[in-house]
Every structure is written in C-alpha cells, then in structure tokens.
Amino acid sequence: MKEEQCYALLIDADNVSAKYIKHILTELSKYGIITYKRIYGDWTNTQHSSWKEELLTNSITPIQQFSYTQGKNATDSAMIIDAMDILYTNDVDGFCIVSSDSDFTRLVSRIRESGKKVIGMGENKTPEPFRKACDKFTILENLLSEADPGQAKSEKTPSILSKEQIEDAIIKMIIENQDSNRATSLGEIGNRLVSLYPDFDVRSYGYNMLSKFLEEFTRVQLIKDRNVVSVALKENLYLKENIDAYVTYLVKKTGKNGLELSTLGNKIYEKYREFKINDYGYAQLNQYVKSVEGIEVRQDGTILKAFCEK
After folding, report:
1. Name one GO molecular function term (predicted).
2. Domain spanning 235-308, CATH architecture
3. Which ranges of the chain does DSSP label H, i.e. alpha helix?
4. Which class would CATH give 6-147?
C-alpha cells in the first residue's frame, strides 16, 4: 500500500524565475514524493537561459514548445495537455502547478474535480482566481525570504489579508465549535484557514509557525495541555482565572481528604452556569482540574478526587 503522496510538478518557465527552483522543490517535498518534474517553454528563446543550468542539476525534464504565433502562449497549451494525460493515468495523488498566470485556473479546477489535490505556487503578482482555485497556494517570494530574509526585501510586499480579518475568521471558528460543544485545536485552525484562504501563509506575516503568529492576537489565546494545543477566546480565559481560584478554594477547604471530582464539578456548574470545559480546550473535567495550578487529581479507590499538591 502506498504511504507517501505522489505529486506531478509542472512549471511554466515563461512566468517563473529560475531563482526559485530549489525552494520550490524543498516546499513540495513537504507534501510527498515528486514523481514528475517537467518545465515548459521555448528553449530556443534566450530569456530561458537561466533555467538551463538548473534543469540538469535538479533532474527536471524540459518540454520544448515553439511559439508558433507571436503573442500566443503555446506553453500553456502544452502544460494543460500533459496535466490531463497525467491525470488520466491516475498514478499521482496531486499536482503542483507553478506559474504566475491565471490561464491555469480552469485546469486547476478540473484536476480538483477529479479528486486530486492541487498546490499552486507563483509570485505575488499571481491573480487571485488562480490562487483561490488551488487547495493551497504558496507565494514564491515567501520561500525566498524564508531561506534568506535579506534576499527578498526588494521584492514587492505581498498583498495579504489583514490580521484583523484572520482573527475574525478564527473567532468565528471557535464560536461555531462552542455551539457544538467542541474544543478548537491549533491544527483545525490551520487547516480551516487554508481552506478559506488557499494563499494563507504565516510566512507572509514574518512568522514560521502558526502558534507564534496567533500569540500576537489580542482576542484569542493558546492553551497548551501536554502535547495538545487548543485555541480559545480570551474572554473565556479571564473567566477561567475566577473559576481556578474557586476550585483552589473548594479543594483547600477539604484538606487532606480531597474533594470528589463529581462534587467539585457540581459546585462549579452551580456558581458558573455558563461554564463549558470545551471552551478551554478540554474534553473532560479532570483534564481541566489538572490544569489548575497547585491542584492534582488522584484515584482514591474507585473515586477520582482533587487534592492540593504537597
């Protein structure tokens, strides 16, 4: 059974510079194995000379396409025909279309209709229709600046969503999950942001991790519980401080005997009727109680109890 995903990499040499190739290959390798590596252009044209050295170094197959009529882009047609041939062989899981040209928008939509994933890559000038058509779109300037922060400073600043728009989208996700009594994981946030905005990339904002990016927001906050990271509304966390203090007070009152978790839960719900453990990234009450500083949960016979740490 095939474990890794296989991708066909198709590059439009007319619309992408050779300086990106190593970064393109590195980025695509995060998704799986690159089984096809093809680049399309008129190789009799001197403007593609910078690509020629990279082809042999990176084992990329050049596809010659003469420009039969001036002003007509024959490269597009060659790429589209090859993409459809590969699609019908059904031996890849997805495609990576590298171009800054919107002419491939319909091709991307057609590939996705066949159940294949499409990763798009292009410069910041890439029109929005092509970006949105992809499952994931990566701005090439981001790859360049990630490898060498000073190298892409002269490039045009990417046209990106504002942080406020992203924060609003995240808050909407959290509230939707609260209505379904579910916690919101960091992974879900990342997946849904890419689903909403295929060209979303934290590197566009100067970060290399989604968690670091979210730490800058004022209305949401990360909750870390061992290896699980959840995202919650900050207003919920202000309430948590009061609940934590109440839990500590109740448990301390019981002394060394501890307080049964069921009793503790009833008291919390009586005092804070709006309390939902899912709002804080936890699935069970004992997980929440364990998160309270100075409180531990232990088994006492068949009963779970909360105790003050010694």
Report:
1. RNA nuclease activity
2. 2-Layer Sandwich (3.30)
3. 21-28, 49-57, 74-89, 105-113, 128-133, 140-147, 163-179, 186-196, 210-214, 234-254, 261-271, 285-291
4. alpha beta
